[in-house]
Amino acid sequence: MRLDKFLCDTLGVTRKEANQILRTKTVTVDGEMEKKAATQVSEDSVVEWEGRQLTLSGPRYIMLYKPEGFVCSHEDGSHPSVLTLLDEIKLEDLHFAGRLDVDTTGLVLITDDGQWSHRITSPKHKCPKTYRVWLADPVQPDYAEKFEQGIQLKSEDGLTLPAQLDVRAEKEVLLTIHEGKYHQVKRMFAALGNKVEALHREFIGEIEMDESLELGEYRYLTQEEIESIWK
Ligand code: URA
After folding, report:
1. What pLDDT does 58 receive?
2. Residue 197 C-alpha to ligand 1 middle, in angstroms?
3. So what's the pLDDT on residue 74?
4. Which pLDDT belongs to residue 142?
Protein backbone atom coordinates (compact mmCIF):
# COMPACT_ATOMS: atom_id res chain seq x y z
CA MET A 1 0.00 0.00 0.00
CA ARG A 2 1.20 3.53 -0.73
CA LEU A 3 2.19 5.59 2.29
CA ASP A 4 -0.30 8.38 1.55
CA LYS A 5 -3.13 5.83 1.36
CA PHE A 6 -1.94 4.31 4.63
CA LEU A 7 -2.14 7.74 6.28
CA CYS A 8 -5.63 8.29 4.86
CA ASP A 9 -6.87 4.99 6.28
CA THR A 10 -5.29 5.29 9.70
CA LEU A 11 -5.78 9.02 10.30
CA GLY A 12 -9.05 9.48 8.46
CA VAL A 13 -7.59 12.29 6.32
CA THR A 14 -7.85 13.05 2.61
CA ARG A 15 -5.05 12.31 0.10
CA LYS A 16 -4.28 16.03 -0.03
CA GLU A 17 -4.05 16.25 3.76
CA ALA A 18 -1.89 13.11 3.86
CA ASN A 19 0.54 14.77 1.49
CA GLN A 20 0.60 17.91 3.60
CA ILE A 21 1.43 15.77 6.65
CA LEU A 22 4.23 14.07 4.75
CA ARG A 23 5.74 17.45 3.87
CA THR A 24 5.99 18.32 7.58
CA LYS A 25 8.54 15.47 7.94
CA THR A 26 6.71 14.05 10.95
CA VAL A 27 6.19 10.58 9.49
CA THR A 28 8.69 7.76 9.88
CA VAL A 29 8.70 4.31 8.32
CA ASP A 30 10.74 1.73 10.23
CA GLY A 31 12.42 4.54 12.11
CA GLU A 32 13.44 6.61 9.05
CA MET A 33 11.80 9.94 8.17
CA GLU A 34 9.74 9.49 5.00
CA LYS A 35 8.06 12.17 2.91
CA LYS A 36 7.36 10.39 -0.39
CA ALA A 37 3.66 9.64 -0.88
CA ALA A 38 4.37 6.71 -3.21
CA THR A 39 6.59 4.85 -0.75
CA GLN A 40 5.24 1.33 -0.31
CA VAL A 41 4.46 0.13 3.19
CA SER A 42 3.59 -3.43 4.11
CA GLU A 43 1.78 -5.02 7.07
CA ASP A 44 5.15 -5.37 8.80
CA SER A 45 6.19 -1.71 8.37
CA VAL A 46 6.24 0.40 11.53
CA VAL A 47 4.73 3.73 10.54
CA GLU A 48 4.79 6.55 13.09
CA TRP A 49 3.38 10.06 12.98
CA GLU A 50 4.63 12.55 15.56
CA GLY A 51 6.04 9.60 17.49
CA ARG A 52 2.75 7.71 17.60
CA GLN A 53 2.51 4.36 15.87
CA LEU A 54 -0.28 4.09 13.32
CA THR A 55 -1.94 0.74 12.77
CA LEU A 56 -4.48 -0.49 10.28
CA SER A 57 -5.80 -2.50 13.13
CA GLY A 58 -9.21 -4.11 13.51
CA PRO A 59 -11.92 -2.95 15.86
CA ARG A 60 -11.19 -1.05 19.05
CA TYR A 61 -12.51 -2.06 22.47
CA ILE A 62 -11.95 0.51 25.18
CA MET A 63 -12.64 0.60 28.92
CA LEU A 64 -12.94 4.11 30.37
CA TYR A 65 -13.22 5.14 34.00
CA LYS A 66 -15.90 7.79 33.61
CA PRO A 67 -15.73 10.80 35.93
CA GLU A 68 -18.74 12.91 36.87
CA GLY A 69 -19.56 15.86 34.62
CA PHE A 70 -19.01 14.10 31.27
CA VAL A 71 -21.70 12.80 28.92
CA CYS A 72 -21.78 9.52 27.00
CA SER A 73 -22.68 11.05 23.67
CA HIS A 74 -20.79 12.74 20.88
CA GLU A 75 -22.14 16.18 21.70
CA ASP A 76 -24.01 17.96 24.45
CA GLY A 77 -24.38 21.70 24.71
CA SER A 78 -23.53 21.91 28.40
CA HIS A 79 -21.09 19.09 29.23
CA PRO A 80 -17.98 17.67 27.57
CA SER A 81 -18.19 14.25 25.94
CA VAL A 82 -16.22 11.38 27.51
CA LEU A 83 -14.75 10.99 24.01
CA THR A 84 -12.68 14.12 24.69
CA LEU A 85 -10.80 11.97 27.25
CA LEU A 86 -9.58 9.61 24.51
CA ASP A 87 -6.33 10.09 22.64
CA GLU A 88 -7.70 8.23 19.61
CA ILE A 89 -8.11 8.91 15.93
CA LYS A 90 -11.47 8.60 14.13
CA LEU A 91 -13.54 9.38 17.22
CA GLU A 92 -16.61 9.56 15.01
CA ASP A 93 -16.36 5.79 14.43
CA LEU A 94 -16.69 5.03 18.15
CA HIS A 95 -19.88 4.49 20.10
CA PHE A 96 -20.91 3.48 23.62
CA ALA A 97 -21.87 -0.03 24.67
CA GLY A 98 -24.32 1.43 27.19
CA ARG A 99 -24.39 4.99 28.48
CA LEU A 100 -24.06 6.46 31.96
CA ASP A 101 -25.75 9.60 33.25
CA VAL A 102 -23.66 12.75 33.54
CA ASP A 103 -23.41 12.33 37.35
CA THR A 104 -22.68 8.55 37.28
CA THR A 105 -19.09 7.30 37.50
CA GLY A 106 -17.41 4.04 36.55
CA LEU A 107 -17.19 1.57 33.72
CA VAL A 108 -17.95 2.72 30.19
CA LEU A 109 -17.17 0.50 27.21
CA ILE A 110 -16.47 2.22 23.91
CA THR A 111 -16.03 0.47 20.59
CA ASP A 112 -16.44 0.63 16.83
CA ASP A 113 -17.73 -2.95 16.70
CA GLY A 114 -21.51 -2.71 16.41
CA GLN A 115 -22.18 -6.43 16.75
CA TRP A 116 -20.19 -6.59 19.97
CA SER A 117 -21.93 -3.58 21.54
CA HIS A 118 -25.33 -4.91 20.42
CA ARG A 119 -24.66 -8.03 22.44
CA ILE A 120 -24.28 -5.79 25.52
CA THR A 121 -27.13 -3.38 24.92
CA SER A 122 -29.79 -5.53 23.24
CA PRO A 123 -32.58 -6.39 25.75
CA LYS A 124 -32.70 -9.86 24.16
CA HIS A 125 -29.33 -10.85 25.63
CA LYS A 126 -30.03 -9.56 29.18
CA CYS A 127 -26.36 -8.70 29.75
CA PRO A 128 -25.92 -8.02 33.50
CA LYS A 129 -24.62 -4.65 34.71
CA THR A 130 -23.67 -4.13 38.34
CA TYR A 131 -23.87 -0.75 40.04
CA ARG A 132 -22.71 0.39 43.46
CA VAL A 133 -25.46 2.62 44.77
CA TRP A 134 -25.35 5.07 47.67
CA LEU A 135 -28.81 5.90 48.95
CA ALA A 136 -30.37 8.80 50.82
CA ASP A 137 -32.33 6.50 53.15
CA PRO A 138 -31.58 3.09 54.66
CA VAL A 139 -32.20 -0.07 52.65
CA GLN A 140 -35.47 -1.71 53.69
CA PRO A 141 -35.76 -5.46 54.42
CA ASP A 142 -38.17 -6.04 51.53
CA TYR A 143 -36.02 -4.38 48.83
CA ALA A 144 -34.23 -7.56 47.66
CA GLU A 145 -37.51 -9.38 47.13
CA LYS A 146 -39.08 -6.42 45.35
CA PHE A 147 -36.13 -6.11 42.96
CA GLU A 148 -36.28 -9.86 42.30
CA GLN A 149 -40.01 -9.67 41.54
CA GLY A 150 -39.64 -6.62 39.27
CA ILE A 151 -40.44 -2.97 39.85
CA GLN A 152 -43.13 -0.92 38.17
CA LEU A 153 -41.41 2.19 36.79
CA LYS A 154 -43.36 5.36 36.09
CA SER A 155 -44.53 5.61 32.46
CA GLU A 156 -43.38 2.08 31.58
CA ASP A 157 -45.43 -0.95 30.60
CA GLY A 158 -44.72 -4.02 32.69
CA LEU A 159 -42.23 -4.69 35.44
CA THR A 160 -38.46 -4.45 35.28
CA LEU A 161 -36.65 -7.78 34.82
CA PRO A 162 -35.58 -9.52 38.06
CA ALA A 163 -32.60 -7.68 39.57
CA GLN A 164 -30.28 -8.82 42.35
CA LEU A 165 -29.53 -6.75 45.43
CA ASP A 166 -26.46 -7.21 47.62
CA VAL A 167 -26.62 -4.98 50.70
CA ARG A 168 -23.17 -3.64 51.64
CA ALA A 169 -24.06 -1.09 54.32
CA GLU A 170 -27.10 0.65 55.74
CA LYS A 171 -27.31 2.97 52.71
CA GLU A 172 -25.04 1.21 50.21
CA VAL A 173 -25.88 -1.68 47.86
CA LEU A 174 -24.67 -3.48 44.77
CA LEU A 175 -27.51 -3.85 42.29
CA THR A 176 -27.33 -6.07 39.21
CA ILE A 177 -29.81 -5.34 36.44
CA HIS A 178 -30.24 -7.12 33.09
CA GLU A 179 -31.60 -4.33 30.92
CA GLY A 180 -30.82 -0.66 30.44
CA LYS A 181 -33.85 1.57 30.58
CA TYR A 182 -33.41 5.32 30.82
CA HIS A 183 -32.18 6.27 34.36
CA GLN A 184 -33.15 2.75 35.36
CA VAL A 185 -31.40 2.42 38.71
CA LYS A 186 -32.47 5.85 39.91
CA ARG A 187 -36.05 5.19 38.85
CA MET A 188 -36.12 1.75 40.52
CA PHE A 189 -35.13 3.25 43.86
CA ALA A 190 -37.49 6.19 43.34
CA ALA A 191 -40.32 3.68 42.87
CA LEU A 192 -39.50 2.34 46.34
CA GLY A 193 -39.53 5.85 47.83
CA ASN A 194 -35.74 6.11 48.14
CA LYS A 195 -33.23 8.34 46.33
CA VAL A 196 -29.92 7.54 44.67
CA GLU A 197 -27.26 9.90 46.01
CA ALA A 198 -24.40 8.49 43.98
CA LEU A 199 -24.01 5.77 41.35
CA HIS A 200 -20.96 3.90 40.10
CA ARG A 201 -20.89 1.08 37.51
CA GLU A 202 -18.54 -1.75 38.48
CA PHE A 203 -19.33 -4.55 36.00
CA ILE A 204 -20.69 -5.10 32.51
CA GLY A 205 -21.07 -8.88 32.12
CA GLU A 206 -17.78 -10.28 33.38
CA ILE A 207 -15.83 -7.12 32.59
CA GLU A 208 -14.87 -5.37 35.80
CA MET A 209 -13.92 -1.71 36.17
CA ASP A 210 -10.13 -1.70 36.39
CA GLU A 211 -9.59 0.27 39.56
CA SER A 212 -5.92 0.81 38.70
CA LEU A 213 -7.16 3.37 36.17
CA GLU A 214 -7.51 6.92 37.45
CA LEU A 215 -10.78 8.78 36.88
CA GLY A 216 -10.85 9.81 33.23
CA GLU A 217 -8.23 7.27 32.14
CA TYR A 218 -8.79 4.41 29.72
CA ARG A 219 -7.19 1.25 28.40
CA TYR A 220 -7.85 -1.31 25.68
CA LEU A 221 -9.68 -4.46 26.72
CA THR A 222 -7.78 -7.73 26.86
CA GLN A 223 -8.72 -10.50 24.41
CA GLU A 224 -10.31 -12.39 27.30
CA GLU A 225 -12.47 -9.40 28.22
CA ILE A 226 -13.57 -8.89 24.60
CA GLU A 227 -14.50 -12.56 24.20
CA SER A 228 -16.34 -12.73 27.55
CA ILE A 229 -19.22 -10.79 25.99
CA TRP A 230 -19.97 -13.67 23.57
CA LYS A 231 -20.33 -16.28 26.35
N1 URA B 1 -29.12 3.81 35.90
C2 URA B 1 -29.22 5.14 36.15
O3 URA B 1 -30.19 5.61 36.74
N4 URA B 1 -28.21 5.93 35.73
C5 URA B 1 -27.11 5.45 35.12
O6 URA B 1 -26.21 6.23 34.79
C7 URA B 1 -27.03 4.08 34.87
C8 URA B 1 -28.06 3.27 35.28
Report:
1. 76
2. 12
3. 83
4. 97
- Residue 57 confidence (pLDDT): 67
* Mean pLDDT over the full length of the chain: 93
Stretches in the chain below the pLDDT threshold 70? 57
Instruction: Catalytic residue, from 4, 76, 101, 166: name it.
Output: 101
Nearest CA to ligand 1 atom 7: 100
Closest C-alpha to ligand 1, atom 4? 183
Which domains, from first to last, does the chain contain?
3-54 (3.10.290.10), 61-122+206-228 (3.30.70.580), 128-204 (3.30.70.1560)
How far, in Å, is the centroid of ligand 1 from the Cα of 223?
27
- Beta strands 27-29 and 32-33 are antiparallel
CA distance 25 to 102: 41
Distance 170 CA to ligand 1 centre (A): 21
User: What is the atom index within ligand 1 of the atom nearest the CA of 183?
Assistant: 3
